[in-house]
Write a structure and sequence with these properties.
- By secondary structure, this protein is mainly alpha-helical.
- A two-stranded antiparallel ribbon has the order 1-2.
Length: 206
């Protein structure tokens, strides 16, 4: 009993101090675990899910409620109806619980709605649907540009991520730019605004 009390006291002491409840490292913002232990929890959840799902399917059980028997389906009729009409509700529910809106794992930070893995998947899908660029083509462009912005030549980092620049009239893609250079190109493309901006700056230059 005393050992359990000591464990609980240590747990809340670390939690109140902003430390990871499993080690002395700093916890992620809004979390009680550090990034290392969050990653371990997520990996364990993935392994458990990958082991349980095939067993439920072989037993003819719904992979969600695990009670209703189904034939050649992963979900029962009730869960299928809920899944078809409750996508946005489930997403909001996961976000409210601090989970990834897509896979239900724990994001590294409390202000993130997706984990790192799902964020990368969404970016890949967006590049393919919006620009017609596969991940292999995107990686090749990064290599060709030496992982740096084509305009300012500053290297891409976690804080300075690459953006696909494209012609807003034709939709044709151009190079990979940082967010700063990509934002500055918009007004320049508008020739009327560009000319007015130059006149404005010359007016107040002296």
């Amino acid at each position: 009993m005393r050992n359990a009390e000591a464990v609980y006291r240590l747990y809340y002491k670390r939690k109140e101090s902003g430390s990871c409840t499993r080690c002395t490292s700093a916890a992620e913002p809004g979390r009680s675990l550090c990034y290392k232990h969050l990653d371990k929890v997520n990996k364990r959840m993935k392994v458990q899910k990958s082991k349980i799902t095939p067993i439920l399917k072989s037993l003819g059980l719904c992979t969600k409620c695990r009670k209703t028997s189904v034939k050649d389906r992963t979900l029962c009729l009730s869960c299928s109806e809920v899944a078809s009409r409750g996508g946005s509700a489930r997403r909001k529910s996961k976000i409210s619980k601090g989970l990834c809106a897509r896979c239900g794992l724990i994001p590294p930070q409390s202000n993130m709605t997706h984990c790192i893995s799902c964020s990368k998947k969404d970016l890949k899908a967006q590049r393919l649907s919006k620009y017609g660029i596969t991940q292999e083509e995107f990686d090749q462009r990064l290599v060709d540009q030496q992982n740096s912005c084509e305009l300012c030549n500053r290297p891409f980092t976690d804080d300075r991520k690459p953006f696909i620049d494209y012609n807003h009239k034709t939709g044709k893609t151009r190079g990979l730019l940082c967010s700063g250079c990509n934002g500055k190109l918009g007004p320049i493309e508008d020739t009327q605004f560009h000319e007015k901006a130059i006149q404005y700056l010359r007016k107040y230059q002296s």
